[in-house]
């Protein structure tokens, strides 16, 4: 009786960036050999249409040979299982075993005309939005996609990076099956870096994972200690300090700058203003303590670190000192 030798070859799409496809994944694939019509085996056993005759596994090179002794007839090969990173193929590959004449002892059939049957990777995407505390979009943030075991979140270590647009949107396309991290690498100017690590799990082809990343505004405080220039351990009360926002960002106090208010004297000689947003400010004494000389200087403070209190001094290491008023004493006898 004429014999048949059926062989097949499988290939996998690879992704070097994510390290998928060259780690033995092909050995997780199996095929089924099915009858494409009702058949009778050499032993007389009836084989129903779509009956499973053999489960085929692959070697490390993606090749396999059918071991079942097949009678003449029509069959098909179909993928039963694949590696988790890949799309399972539902395609049926026909195998037709016809009598090839008495001179042929074994008919050789290569499934798919000998061409490798390729599995495509499962790819999803991430659709993100970068917003401020009020939900408004923020542009210019750098976001990274990382392996799920990463602990160092830098541009150099990221698998992919994206920059948020003016409306705050960002995206990562062609993210393979698996678990990944999303983390902000660089925040927009004036905002606090969001160090939250966001989990992304891609499990289906063309899946879209949506993420919103919120940045808080940088806020800082201005404070000063008012002292007697001659006795710096003596704190002075009754001064008034005006605080201006550098509205035109020219680094100089001028008529375009906004007066925000005055420092609050929390206790004797201790003045402060809290929760000022990122940017440049000017502090100017508008009223000196009684019997002391007004300091007419303008003192710049640039708030760029969240939660920091910036101390204003006119005498380094001593505080904000005022000279006592002096006059001439004339004695007539």
From TrEMBL:
Pfam families: SpaA. Residues 25-104, 124-216, 220-315 form the SpaA-like prealbumin fold domain. InterPro entries: Ig-like_fold (IPR013783), SpaA_PFL_dom_1 (IPR041033). Keywords: Secreted, Signal. PANTHER family: COLOSSIN-B-RELATED. Belongs to the serine-aspartate repeat-containing protein (SDr) family. This is Collagen adhesion protein. It comes from human gut metagenome.
